[in-house]
Amino acid sequence: MADLRAFLAASFAPGSKPQVIEVLRALMAEAQINPAFGERFRDGFLRRRRDALGVLVNRALTRGDLPPDPRPGTVADIVFGVIWYRVLATREPVDASLVDDLISVLAGTPTRASGSRP
After folding, report:
1. Cα-based distances in Å from 14 to 19, 38, 81
2. 37 alpha carbon, distance to own chain's centre
3. What's this model's pTM, rounded to 2 decimal places?
């Protein structure tokens, strides 16, 4: 699971830099209004990250580190959906605690004592 955790940590690290977040917001906005740019953005950036995550998820499944459900594509939707939701909608931090939460959710293991809330 260390490889998956490292990938998520590296993916989330730029989330602590406001200038990077602003660029990501601008890129995603342009991808929504400019079909040609959107296709290049999806193929050149988003799909590469999704494919890389898929390799790590498949390895984790093979090792038994992750349960068989959800499927790898859904795992990618969860991980990147959380990132983009925070970047575009809530503006909550994309940080190390989010990595821990996602690993916990994906592995089906609690990170906090049962019933406790942050």
Report:
1. 9, 21, 16
2. 22
3. 0.81
